[in-house]
Amino acid sequence: MASSVSEENALKDACSGSPNGGMLTAAEGASLDISKVNFLDNRSGPQETVSSFLNALNLKQYVRAYYYMQNPNVFPGAYDPFAAGYTNTEVITATFGTAISDGAAGNIYYKQPVGMQVLTTSGAMQYFVGCYNLHISQPAVQATPPFSPLGITGGTFKVVTTESDILNGLTAACK
Fold first, then answer.
1. Quick check: is 106 in a domain?
2. Closest by alpha carbon to 50, among 104, 93, 88?
3. I need a surface site. Which of 32, 46, 103, 113 has the fewest CB within 10 A?
4. Which residues, other chains included, contact 173 with Cβ-Cβ below 8 Å and sequence gap of 6+?
5. Is residue 26 part of a domain?
6. Distances, alpha carbon 58 to alpha carbons 28, 135, 172, in Å
7. CA-to-CA distance for 129 and 173, rounded, in angstroms?
8. pTM of the prediction?
9. Is the residue at 27 inside a domain?
10. What is the pLDDT of residues 7-37, one digit of tens each?
């Protein structure tokens, strides 16, 4: 039976019965919006993984943030102190440097330089610059479940005094 509905209209109506009433929006390009108005969950690279982690913190989704860590019991440690460490965080914005990668024996390791501006719940602004370490076993060699995605394995950050210190510190953050 032939249909008189155009493909474009059929696609618009395809999810009309969904809980959101068909008002779904597609991801556009490589958007890494970490703000509170977005939900970002992307582990396709080091910047994407760290952006998703920071987005979870901005949304106060501390359990989700905790599980961007590859082995959270090792780094950052117990969940309750981890979550408590972010209770005075209102908004995080980030500036990324160029990630460094290294591979060895079926593993890929990354170092992702990051500068962060953190607005606290009291209205104070704090600045940090540092480096997140990330790891993934080559997906092609992961032969048994569960799959282990790219995850954060560590990080070292220092407090800096101004936003310009972030830009100046990014090139040396992971050395």
1. yes
2. 93
3. 103
4. 97, 113, 114, 115, 129, 130, 131
5. no
6. 21, 23, 26
7. 7
8. 0.81
9. no
10. 555 545 554 444 433 333 333 334 689 999 9
